[in-house]
## 1
Amino acid sequence: MNIEEIISLFETSQILTYIGYFFIFNITLIILEIFFDFFTSKERRWKDTGANIIIFFLGQLLEKTIFGSIGIICLLPFYNLSPFEIPMNWWTWALSLLAADFTYYWMHRIEHEHRILWANHSVHHSSEDYNLTVSMRLSIIESAIEWIFLIPIILIGFNPFQAIISLIFVAQYQTWIHTERIVKLGWLDEVFNTPSVHRVHHGSNHKYLDKNYGGILILWDKLFGTFQREEEKVVYGLTKNINSNNPITINFIEYKNIWKDVKRCKSWRDRFKIVFGDLVWRPSYFE
């Protein structure tokens, strides 16, 4: 498969129609929950909901005009370097989805473990509410770099179209799990990422921190020791909340915090660790 064929797939493939249907279904769920919460007077921070929607539209605008093509352009050289080529058929789509789900687990986990990546991903965790609009609260610039995590999939032979679409499906799946209205689902909570499982991931409770990274399957968390069941009431948000509904502040406040810490550092080694190290590390002289 040459470059022209891959690019044309993003314009003509039938699977994009199904992705579109899935997107419309998710938007419908979000709208229904908003109306249901409004007419049942369920407690909700409405300014927070408004911020989530604005962030979603900003992200879509940037992705459709700038960032969407970055991943394709940057992954093509790796595709050309790979000595392997996996054909596209029903069973390789299943394998691609499994590979994308595995990739998502590690991408998600690394975003929680390195501060410069957390600066993007913390946007999603900064809401103190938990409803379907939180699934729309994603960094407006995160999509510009997430293609990096798809490089291993490309090198083993999946083409960029199949890899990107599979990762999109993994992300789209997770819309419905951002709700408090669905309780525990028994054995499904032990296999899949469900509302109960993902509520834990959004908790700032000490026992819930850095747990349940899975996208579709939660089996990766069980395999790599990061699984936690929902046991105590979840407190949503960050360990130190940002207290803002401004979409720009929400997206860039952690970058501002990183810059403040960088200016306080006394060596380039400390500056490097502040930016690329784990979330809690600070030089001893900060205290």
Note: Residues 253-286 form one domain.
## 2
Amino acid sequence: MKKIIIMLLMVLPLVAGAQTKIKETAVPRSVLLALEKTYDSYKVRTWYQAPGQYIAELVIDGQNGRSYFTAGGDWQYSTFPVKAEECPTLMNTYFVNNYPGYRIKNIEYVEEMNGDNYYRMIIIKKGIAESDCEMIFDTRGKLMKSNAPDPDAVKRDYYTHNNPDASEKKITEETGTEKSRHRNRPAPKVDEPQVEQFTPSDEIEAHFKKAMGKRVSAGPEWVMRNGEYAVAYFSNAQKVKMEAVYQLSNNQPIMNGKTLAKDRYNSTILKYIAEKFSGEKYKIEKMVQYEFNSKYRDPIDGKKPKPYTYVVISQKVKGSRELKYTRMEFDSRNAFIGLIAQPLDEKDVQ
């Protein structure tokens, strides 16, 4: 199994860049027969040829996928794109707890000829020109193989980056002065991040002015989000807090966010939160509805993404004035998507 997985990890990226679209009449009969033996019911959309391989882009039980065959007619494996919410909880929890500052690029469910099935998750560190990393999980969500950085190093680097005072604390602990300073240190502050000054490109500012015009009553205040986006925080003419998000790589608008008033909170989401936090004290810091620009298309499937809702929940840490935060996302049907490990940017609730 391990040898097969290693071979697959090496082959998949190469195949993606060397495919030629062909007609079914150009596919060897041995490959067509192999497909018939592999799946009882299917519909082929397109055939591709790669060095030593034939690839069928197909639909099985209403799910899009790809099947890979050798030139000699042997089925190798099939891949099916899946969403994070469709994956085992253990798998999603592992990613959220171990890779802050990273995002999921895509997930595939893989079926192999020997009956071994597993999930292949591609993650990437948020920022410009970062490399893909991949992790293999079994069907229960247990990590089997990964070429991603060591989780402890990732969390340590993320903590150091977001807690610059930690090094100073370490020094005082080593010199034995931390105890004496403890009595005089200020009480923990709640949600008062230091926002770095950021100036977007002229093209992004032009997009913002064209879209918003005179409908701005306060702002905008610009921040960079994850090294990939420029975000304008502002209030519209109705004093509603808004966000406008732009792609830094091409200066194009992606989506707008609207912070909901408490009396406009979605009842389905409120019910879900109440059930998950039953018996606990909590406060909804904000609920933001994001809607994508009419011209924006997902770079993976080419479709316009559906709206979603972002929620930040705070809870008091027992025995302290500090707050801990839970960040959640819900889809267009108000169903829970998953957790977010860190603030979106410096303006987000810390």
Note: The chain has three domains: 2-82, 84-156, 195-340.
## 3
Amino acid sequence: MIKSKQQGLLIVISAPSGAGKGTIINKMLEKNNNLWLSVSETSRPMRANDIDGITYHFCTKEEFEEKIKDDYFLEYALYANNYYGTPKKYIQEHLSKGQDVILEIEIQGAMQIKKLIPEALFIFIMPPSLNELKKRLVGRGTDTKEKILERFKIAYQEMNDVTKYNYVVVNDEIDVAADKILSIIKAERCRVDRIEDVFLNTEEEYMHEMLVDKDLDNNPLEIN
């Protein structure tokens, strides 16, 4: 009899800008109510479709740097001249309840987490192609041409870091990509090193052994 750990999984998901990780994660949250998404904090300006506290927790660069001094973040990184960080608050609380916690973070932050919590699950989302990535960045309509070029260059560099992750999922179809990641999470929960205990000397196991012994006495095994 196997008892799995009640502790939830810490799942780190990264992707180049424009690869669609946010859309995939939202689809995963629709499909699995045991997932909790940690909302990152950022110093970048809000966009038209952003909602403070849902898309990100927004603050000024100066406020972010003060929080760094106060050891407020589990990890943080400077990306495209803006800070992004994961507040420590609430993460352990959700993990201890058995909920799987998703961190949607950049590669710099992910590698900080890997040093601190190497047993976390690291998943990298790739765009179907560089051409499709360019289309998505342009299609957003939120960045200048210079900003799009900067993001594209960073994305190209980031894709070379895929080997630092446990799994890679290509985002060609949102539903398919979300289902793949949910399957990875299910498989990870079945790993032997995530099992809390195996009950071998309980009364129930003893009764099973007795029944097996009795059955073998009455019906001995025949080995050809």
Note: The longest strand covers residues 73-79.
## 4
Amino acid sequence: MYDYIIIGAGITGITLCKLLREKGRNVICLEKEEEPGGLCRTKRIQGHTLDIGGGHFFHTKHQEVFDLVFKHIPKEEFNYYERVSKILLGDETIDYPIESNIWQLPMNEQIEYIISVICNGEQSGRPEPGNYEEWIRWKLGDKICDEYMIPYNTKLWGVEPKEMDIDWLHKIPRVNVREVLQYCLQRKQDVTKFPAHIHFYYPKKGGFQAIINALAKDELPYIKCGEKVESIVKNDDAWVINGKYQAGKVINTTPWCDLYEALGNPVELKSDFEKIRYNRIVVSLYEKHYDINWHWRYIPDKNKPYHREFYIGNFAQDSAKNGIYLETNIINHKEGNLKIDDRPAVAEYVTDAAYPVPVIGHADAIKRILDHYGPLGLYGVGRWGQHEYQNADVSVHEAMRFVESLDREG
């Protein structure tokens, strides 16, 4: 009998396995795929380094996460970049974030954007709304919403903006009208107020999976691949998974909605499980020569099915220099409808689950699920276990916090 069974061997599950074993716990990690890594896996295709789970770049505000990663893969094995991300607005490409770089647009466009920002609902004193579409208009004004935020996020999430909650909006810019005007007049932005990481690390070889390989190196004997969870049953003194794995406690790092049947279809939580939703992303690899230094570009254009494009050779040192990959919500993807310069994709991969979709009520739903199962010894950790839009570093940090909490509990 194990002390812990971990469901899922993505970056959260691997980190939990490592840290629990270091604490002397008897652990097994069950992974339904034939290899560990989850969204952080990388494939080598015709000289290209392709992160098949979409864009992953390593940076964190948590020093302990840096310490853990660099302990297993030396800092010298990374390149360090100043982020170059762009936004396509009509025929113009400007720097991200939009609110700091309106000055890069033609003058007539600048005027329209500035007027719209000045007239936003927050500036006008209107009360804060409760869904994403109304909130985004209230915060940013109609122009930024109609040209960028609404179409981009509709393409990304695959749901109507009015269905989405506002509890995840720390991920988007916090517009200060005075600063928007200042940037336009000075024709520059203050990078210290960048809404996300300004710099990032990326492995010199092996893509983002180099981090996974380093963390998982000593954990592979404790990871059982090809083991999809079909049943989770609580007996008097143990959890039993698939009728053969027993443990005092279980940690889930996968989407809860995929475990509903395995948990015996708990009727009392049915509506909560229904609010735990995710989207699926197609990653498409193409070859095209480029001289730009961009790392990625956001594509809000409704006429283009994909929402983001990545210039692989500008961050993956070991990759062919002409590689580009696109991210497309599977809802918008049709086989053969994506081409660059009339060239079809070199390869395509579909994620099983990409982003937790923040539909209205999802936060209360996941809290009820965790509050129900936690006292029984079934926990949720990481992007999927907590159903939060966490980057890889945050999921690692949440795994660290969980293991530390065990020490506090004795």
Note: The chain has a mean pLDDT of 92.
